[in-house]
Amino acid sequence: MLKKTIAQLDPYIPETPLADLEKETGVAKITRLSANENPFGTSPAVKQAIQNFDFTTTRLYPDGDANALRQAVAVKLSVDPEQLLFGCGLDEVIELTARTFLEVGDEVVEPWPTFGEYKLHCQIEGANIVDVPVLDDGTFDLQGLIAAITPKTKLMWLCNPNNPTGTYMPLADLRNLLKQVPKHVLVMIDEAYMEFVTQENGSAIQLLNEFDNIVVMRTFSKIYGLAAMRVGYAIIPKALISAMQAVRLPYNLNSVSQVAALAALKDTTFVAGMRQKVATARDQFERFFDQAGITYDQSQANFIFFKAPQVNDLHQYLLQHGYLLRNGLKPGWLRLTFGSSDENAAIQALMNRFYATK
Ligand SMILES: *Cc1c(COP(=O)(O)O)cnc(C)c1O
Predict the structure, then answer these.
(1) Among 93, 117, 253, which residue has the most ligand 1 atoms within 8 Å of its CB, making it the best to mutate?
(2) In 3D, which of 165, 235, 223 has the Cα closest to residue 194?
(3) Which regions of 153-265 does DSSP assign to beta strands (E)?
(4) Most distant CA pair in the chain, distance
(5) Ligand 1 contact via 87 beta carbon (within 6 Å)
(6) Is the CB–ligand 1 distance for residue 159 below 6 Å?
(7) Tens digits of per-residue pLDDT, 16-50?
(8) Residue ranges per domain, the chain?
(9) Which residues carry this modification: N6-(pyridoxal phosphate)lysine (predicted)?
């Protein structure tokens, strides 16, 4: 009965609700540092906007074009509002991309490790994924990515900064790579973490006028701290936008989410504060890992990927002491979302204690 492609699918496992996990483990309070959520919450302007939401409109379908949000995002990024496609989270944009472009037997190129949803949705469509392992320092193998392209390749996924490695590909490298990608390949550039980058202004939005086979994707879930509201979007080439809009569900973005995202977008002070706090945490963890002799990838995101001796024991130890990290993305490695400075200090103390007794 099932589609062939679904029978052997490796599903994306969502995070267990914290209350359930606390019950399961018997740990009184668990802080989740496994999902790259914002430990500092959400802009207070969002709370205000939701409180002001006009409840007489709940019986009406939402604005299917998310017009207020669309205009605001377009102005902020200096892009054509017509080129914006909104999704119920960036997850939906990823699904929509696979649904719109892929047929059975098509090929898709991605670095490995990277965000698991790309592969999942490509597999559902029956496409073949070509994983190109990252280099020893976690950065993309640019030559390998180009070499993996064949006449059958339809899509290339590039997450920048990459999840889970956190590594950042400078704009100049991206431009060089794109120059070598044939025009029949659509390059999906996932910038879920771009707002955390402090190294340079590296958004591929600056390349939209140079290449008509690139899509840039963003989300409100990470730096804006709005994961619960499910708002992501992409800037789509003009030649492709109407096809993608036709595949999209007409009311995919609910009214409250539209209001919340608009308020979040306007609070630039909140975002700037997050960028600063995360940059500080990054520096601090790099120093900590250097001192501890622990290998890590150079991150420009709100998380860090490190090679943890006795990885499963450490993961379990931290969980028992109230901190959930992400295990299983690459054997021997853990991904840690930066927490508040107190949480970060507590984790470092726990890791010191764990390794001192080993
Ligand atoms: C979190 C994440 C997303 C999904 O974001 P949502 O908008 O919450 O669906 C997409 N891409 C990457 C790389 C992510 O880490």
Answers:
(1) 117
(2) 223
(3) 153-159, 186-190, 214-219, 231-235
(4) 61
(5) no
(6) yes
(7) 999 999 999 999 999 999 999 999 999 999 999 99
(8) 14-36+269-356, 44-266
(9) 222
Measured between alpha carbons, how far is 126 from 129 in angstroms, rounded to an integer? 9
Q: What is the mean pLDDT of residues 283-310?
A: 98
Sheet of 214-219, strands arranged across:
84-88, 231-235, 214-219, 186-190, 153-159, 107-112, 128-133
| Torsion angle defined by CA atoms of residues 192, 196, 199 and 200, in that order, rounded to the nearest 10 degrees | 60
Q: What is the mean pLDDT of the chain?
A: 97
Find out whether the beta carbon of 37 lies less than 6 Å from any atom of ligand 1: no
Give ∠ CA 302-259-215 in degrees, rounded to 5. 55
CATH architecture of 44-266: 3-Layer(aba) Sandwich (3.40)
The model carries a pTM of: 0.97
* Residue 269: how many other CB atoms lie within 10 Å: 10
Banded pLDDT at 8 (limits 50, 70, 90): confident
With the most atoms of ligand 1 within 8 angstroms of its CB, the residue from 36, 37, 90, 157 to mutate is 90
Give yes or no for residue 169 having a pLDDT over 80. yes
CATH code, residues 14-36+269-356: 3.90.1150.10
Instruction: Report how far ligand 1's centroid is from the alpha carbon of 211 (Å).
Output: 24
**Residues facing 334 on adjacent strands:** 306, 327
Does 163 sit in the ligand 1 pocket, CB within 6 Å?
yes
Q: Output the CA–CA distances (angstroms, integers) from residue 171 to 39, 76, 174, 189, 343, in the order listed.
A: 28, 20, 5, 12, 33
Dihedral pair phi/psi, residue 333, rounded to 5° = -115, 150
Report pLDDT for 12.
81
**Has residue 124 got a pLDDT over 90?**
yes
